[in-house]
Amino acid sequence: MKQKNNLLENPHGFSVSLVADGVLVGIMAGCVSVIYRLLLNNAEKIMFRVIEFTKGNHFYMFGWFLILAAMGFLVGKLVAWEGMCSGSGIPQVQGEMKGYLNQKWWRVLISKIIGGTLCILGGLSLGREGPSVQLGAMAGKGLAKVTKTTATKERYMIACGSGAGLAAAFNAPLAGVMFSLEEIQKNFNSSMLVCVISGCVTSDFISKNIFGLSPVFDFHLEKILPLGNYWMLILLGVILGLCGAFYNFVMLKGQDFYGKLKIIPSEYRIILPFLAAGILGYILPSVLAGGHAMIELITGHRLLVSVMLVLLLVKFLFSAFCFGSGAPGGIFFPLLILGAYIGAIYGSLIISGTGIDPCYITNFITISMAGFFTAIVRAPITGILLIAEMTGTFEHFLSLAVVCIISYIVAHLLRSEPIYESLLGRILAKNGMVENPGPDNKVLRSFAVGTTSIACGQKIKNVPWPDHCLIVTINRGQEEIIAKGSTEVHSGDALVALIDESYLGMVTESIQLICGEITPE
Fold it and tell me: Which of 325, 358, 407, 449 could form a disulfide with 371 if both were Cys (CB 3.0 to 4.6 A apart)?
């Protein structure tokens, strides 16, 4: 039986259905992300207990190294079985949204959850947030496949799931919404916004019921930095931009390092970071896993600058060593830890050099996390909202914005490509594909034609279409018609337009006015 209403021809029904889809995706993505987060939290606790129990006993220590090697071997086999579970997962979702990749959602869910848990159990310096984005996206895709929805709504559900996964991982729904739009979808489509907000709020509700209402980072900001001291933020933004560009360079070099180890089969190379984690576990255990132990060291404590420099350097190199191996895990949380330490070191030097109130050290720590994230990922709005939500305050929005903008500009001037864009390029190259941004960055958009609209009953050539767009096809029921100047537009048609991305908002609004219903006076 034919569907009663075509959602593309009924934008109101489409928007309403997207709210329901967003809630369903939020439930699925929230549950998957919460399970993953619980597994990783417990795995990290077990890892530290094992290190404490075995330390000093050579027989037990040797046994732990054997277990680490076995876990590395198993993770390598998982990555060989499902290559899309490797690394962060965010580039894979971006590739899926652009149409280059088609991930097998159930295989990714299984391999990512098991592999990511084993990596944290082994102490690898990897985060849960990137994988949570991929897991949420695959939960959304799985739901779309099971419900046999349209290809358009499947893309919406994937994007919604990615934001919902991040929201559940960080207890940060606004950051989840913005990350999905700014980094995954890369536009601010109103229909997409409705779906993503519904999903992120739902997943955040589920997460907060399990982990509580407290923000992820327990930083208490006592005072707002005076405007007269904003020169300190300008300098900090420049430093973070430089450090972010260097971080991206080293992370990619870490992958190159493993690529040159031809003597070791790729599926066995992941054993190396597991063994390195075993060594560091008995020397400097605080650098293991995501980095919660390192945050606790600078929360309410004043470490020596030399100690923080050592922790920063070791964490940085160990993160690159772990991530370069292709192990399932992200860089999201570890890079925030590195940003926090850059801020702590900078703040300590500024306080000792200028004599300002020591309480501002917390300001420099949190601001640096956002600035470092922005320089690396090139998503400033997400960085600002993420840190504001994770610290539980929006009072420092101006200082966050100043540092993020400057670090963004510095990284851009250094021609440092955003890390996830670089990683996606490598994934596509590995699969024999090359990313094509399209002719002058054009995007396709669909518009429903109303019965009383300007376009209805007119030939394509007679409609006053705005500049910077081209009507390419007309979807009429089950028929797809190549648009020509002489083609007549009918009520209920779905016009597909190719739009210059630089003018997307203006052109979209103009076409909506042309195709929309005209209300009689």
Answer: 407
Collect all residues with Cβ–Cβ distance below 8 Å to 99 and sequence separation of at least 6.
none
Both structure tokens of 174: 């606004």
3-state SS record for 94-110 = HHHHCCCCCCCHHHHHH
Whether residue 500 contacts residue 507, with contact meaning beta carbons closer than 8 Å, is answered with yes
Paired residues of 97 in beta bridges: none
pTM given for the model? 0.78
3-state DSSP assignment of residue 484: coil
Neighbours of 263 (CB within 10 A): 5
The token duo for 441 is: 């960055």
Q: Does the pLDDT value for residue 28 go beyond 80?
A: yes
Q: CA-based angle 132:91:42, to the nearest 5?
A: 25
Measured in degrees and rounded to the nearest 5, phi and psi for residue 403 equal -65, -40
Average pLDDT on 352-362 reads: 85
Confidence of residue 515 (pLDDT cuts 50, 70, 90): confident
- Pull the structure tokens for residue 170: 């960080």
DSSP reduced 3-state for 466: coil
List the structure tokens of 511: 């076409």
pLDDT at 316: 93
The single-letter code of the amino acid at 186 is: K
From residue 222, give the alpha-carbon distance in Å to each of 175, 227, 354, 395.
Answer: 23, 16, 19, 10
Region 372-384: mean pLDDT is 88
| Separation of alpha carbons 180 and 161, rounded Å | 9
Alpha helices in 260-354, H assignment, sequence order: 271-283, 292-298, 305-324, 332-354
Q: Is 482 helix (H, G, I), strand (E, B) or coil?
A: strand
User: What is the tens place of the pLDDT at every residue in 216-262?
Assistant: 776 767 778 888 888 999 999 999 999 999 999 999 998 888 888 88
**DSSP states along 239-263:** HHHHHHHHHHHHHHHHHHHHHT-TT
Compute φ and ψ for 118, nearest 5 degrees: -65, -35
Tokens for 519, please give them.
């209300």
**Residue owning tokens 């990683």:** 423
As given in the structure block, the two tokens for residue 200 are: 């992120």
Which phi-psi region, left, alpha or beta, contains residue 484 (left: φ > 0; alpha: ψ -120 to 50)? Answer: beta
Inter-residue long-range contacts of 99-103, CB under 8 Å, 24+ positions, other chains counted: 100/428, 100/433, 100/435, 101/427, 101/428, 101/431, 103/138, 103/141
On whether the CB atoms of residues 392 and 366 are closer than 8 A, the answer is: no
Q: Could you tell me how far CA 462 lies from the centroid of its own chain?
A: 44
Tens digits of residue pLDDT in 397-419? 888 889 999 999 999 999 888 88
Is the distance from CB of 129 to CB of 292 less than 8 angstroms?
no
E strand or H helix at 8, and its extent? none
Kindly state the helix (H) or strand (E) to which residue 151 belongs, with its residue range: helix 151-170
Look at residue 150 in the predicted model and tell me its pLDDT.
74
Let me know: does 452 contact 518? Beta carbons within 8 Å.
Answer: yes
